[in-house]
Amino acid sequence: MDINEDNLLAHRRAGVLLHITSLPNENGSGNLGVEAYNFVDFLHNAGLKVWQTLPLGVPHGDGSPYQCLSAHAGNPGLICLEELKQKGWLQEAGQCDTCETGDDDFLNCLLAKTYTGFENLASVEEKQQYVNFCTNKSNWLDDYALFVALRNEFSQQCWNQWPEPLKERKPAALKEARRRMVSAIEIIKFEQFLFYRQWMALKEYANNKDVLLFGDIPIFVSYDSADVWANRAVFKLDKTGQMSVVAGVPPDYFSVTGQRWGNPHYDWNYLKKSRFAWWNDRLRSQLEMFDILRIDHFRGFEAAWEIPASEDTAINGEWVKAPGHELLAAVKKEFGNIPLVAEDLGIITAEVDQLRTDFNLPGMKILQFAFGDTNSNPYLPHNYDHNCVVYTGTHDNDTTLGWYNALNDHDKQRIYRYLGHPQVSMPYLLIGTAFSSVANLAIVPMQDILELASEDRMNTPGTIEGNWKWQFSWAQLTEAQVTRISEIVKVFSR
């Protein structure tokens, strides 16, 4: 496989959707350590050529990777401490006198110890790599590190609750804060260095094993983020920095009241005047980390659902146009043709389809949405073209087995009738359907390979409890499942 080929999305491939936190780990959520490399080996050995993850940013307290403190920074919680111990930089792992094991303060304490070890033991070359990293990422890293240091100082309060001079980024206040918190800022930058160092090593390993890394970009960013604090002109905010409208989607398959995400909307007039520099910077960071990118909620580039900030639900919003064509033209001018996938689920209009096709971006097909009452359903395989990505389900869906078990007998019979009454059971029936389709790329969640039911789903949209916590163990993966998925890959030339 040549990751420099003209169009990575133009060839038949198959892959797995699994977030890093879902990797096995006896001591907490998954990380960028040995199990990540083991997962690449599993993919390679099975003939699966793509690993799709969820966004890798720094989440808020709810753990959602779609609401992060930065559009650029990586989650320090994904750093493998064991690798730091092996380097000799962390010599007291597991020991922190003032913090509870496993919480954020505990991790921060250990990473601070790692910074001390790095200063004392790192080679000249490694120290220069750190200096180069800070210089190369300074366009976002300086603001992010100061933002996190201040947020920690103010007990995780949102930036709009900070003292006025810091909230308004008065130069004298920022200068004094950088002086006062110089040590804390340095450690936050060092955490990012460690994250990127480990991620890029994993990416190199994966690419050498013929595995592409497939990332996810939420179209909107969190209001409580370094991006909004440092770039208020990019967003629709009033003079005091407050939001009058917030992002979301109207009632749909997932929720009868819609989804009120609460993110700020973009000030597209400002972005047009600045030639979309903020978006190009964001994409540049992600293109360094991933081979393929998905734009979550792509339809927001054509029109986005604006909800009055005073509303508790997403029902009373309106569609407001966005300059998606101009944005994507600016992206193409900056980067050329890049491997972007458009998440075009939900309420999709002819204008959204036209925007996607104008730039030859593959859309998404979800088999769990396919089996309604009409053969014109766009998610039925006979309606696909090559330029799409087919999924059994995504992180927002139930597992395929859970979805199937919840259907009535009539709906189950409709599925088997469409698929020719095969003797294959779920979820491998739907996996085989995805892999046999004409879609260039087929992706299945790891839960489906493991034949897991509803209790193992990753996220239930519209809810805030119990999401983003699922992990698998290698004991769940049988030899029969490995053989089965490998055979499906071979039979359908993926």
From TrEMBL:
Enzyme class label: transferase
GO biological processes: carbohydrate metabolic process
EC id: 2.4.1.25
InterPro entries according to UniProt: GH, Glyco_hydro_77
Catalyzed reactions: Transfers a segment of a (1->4)-alpha-D-glucan to a new position in an acceptor, which may be glucose or a (1->4)-alpha-D-glucan
Gene3D superfamilies: Glycosidases
GO molecular function: 4-alpha-glucanotransferase activity
Keywords of this entry: Carbohydrate metabolism, Glycosyltransferase, Transferase
Family, per entry: Belongs to the disproportionating enzyme family.
NCBIfam families: malQ (TIGR00217), PRK14508.1-2 (NF011079), PRK14508.1-3 (NF011080)
Protein name: 4-alpha-glucanotransferase
Top-level taxonomy: Bacteria, Pseudomonadati, Pseudomonadota, Gammaproteobacteria, Methylococcales
